[in-house]
Amino acid sequence: MKHTIGALAIVLCVGLLLSSCEQAKSPTGVSSSDQSAALDHVRGTVPVGVRTESPSTTCGTLLPQSVVLSGFTVTYTGRTYSGTQTTFSYTVTGPSEQMSFRLEDPACAPGLASWDPASGKHSSNDANINPGIEWSPGVGSGGANSFSFSVTYPGSVNEGIVLTSVKSSSSTGVGFITGACARVFDIAGKGFTDANNNGVLDGSETGIANATVTLLAPPSSVLCTSTTDASGNYLFPQLPEGNYIVQIDANSVTPGTQTNYITATTPTSLTVSVGPNSLNNNFGFFFKTSKLITDLKFGTLATNGATPGFWKKQLQAAISGSGNPVVSKANLLIYIGSIRSLLLNEPYQLGTGDGLQAALDILNKPVKTSLDALNQQLLALEFNHVSGHGILATDPALQLQLIGWGEALVANPPAAPALSNAPALPSATLSDATDVYIQINKSSGGGGSF
């Protein structure tokens, strides 16, 4: 018999290139819900090949949809999920002659639940594809063969690339087709606020949400786009083995401002190879602190923030039940609840009670170090943020990134010397962040309307 195993790589490569050209016309976004599900998969918290069901987010049609083998056309007709099972379906068409169709049952998938027609045989004794399901349906009527086949697995199973073959009386053709979970890989990473400005994603650094990340086939063919989720993560799942380019759109990192206040600390374009997964393709950004301070000071970047002293008085009034507070105790409790869940688990959990006294203790503490000063200004900025103040109205994305900067520094601070005779610190210092927050928190409007 004539074997065509040597053409496997060519079949897959051609399928990828054709799909890339088509997808470049219509980029497809990746949903945040499926990012989370697929990231669970690639991190090993969900069994390989199985996922929590959500809409398909494969990158367009990069997986091979059809292949011609021994004169027969094998076409993938889709994946369906019923809530408990996943079915992969195919048609095989060709000349009116006896043939056998075989489909790989990959190791990444759970055990098959069923297949159709039921006359198919599951075996591991084939010369090319093991294990697999093989059907020998006979000869079709009307001068041509046209048959439908399907395999069904329990649970939700990703699309992948499987081997398939057609055996006719004169030859055996083997190729690739879309099927269950095999031979696909994920590209993932994070857009993050590089709090210490070192170009590396460190454990306490927070993500940048809603940034646009694009996947390209080298050198420049757009395959699809993704948007970072609330934690800054992005994901391009179920990609064929090969080389790709991943780019982040720096203009999407702070989309609300007319002037760009961030600068990249890492390359904004990365060449990535998959097979296996490639999961740490991260993009870091830091702040143009001197420009931020200048524009805040002179009103180019408008703010209606309130000072630490303002928030200290509101907390004192809420605790004592006296005075004439601008912000009610009820609203302060709502704000504290929001601060507790804003970004990192630390630093501002504010105790186990209502948090009023814990917040006051931070704002009331004598400032003896750079860390003390940062803590007070950052907590005031967080009160401003959750109450709709600061630069929130101008650029909420920028303000949240600035908060993430401070939270990471407070959670894992560099050396925090006493304020007097303090030596010069690196660019990602506590005092840099504090100086920015001071400008946001000292509105000429006295804190605006609460």
The residue-averaged pLDDT reads 83
Global structural class = alpha+beta
Sheet-strand content, in percent, reads: 25-35%
Shape: elongated
Q: Any descriptors?
A:
single chain; 450 residues; alpha+beta; five-stranded antiparallel beta sheet; 9 helices; 26% helix; 29% strand
Kindly describe this structure:
- By secondary structure, the protein is of the alpha+beta class.
- Helices cover 26% and strands 29% of the residues.
- It contains 9 helices and 19 strands.
- A 6-stranded mixed beta sheet has the order 1-11-10-5-8-7. A 5-stranded antiparallel beta sheet has the order 2-3-4-9-6, with no helix packed on it. The protein has a 4-stranded mixed beta sheet with strand order 15-12-19-17.
- Helix 8 packs across helix 9 (430-441).
- The longest helix is centred in the C-terminal third of the chain and has 17 residues, at 370-386.
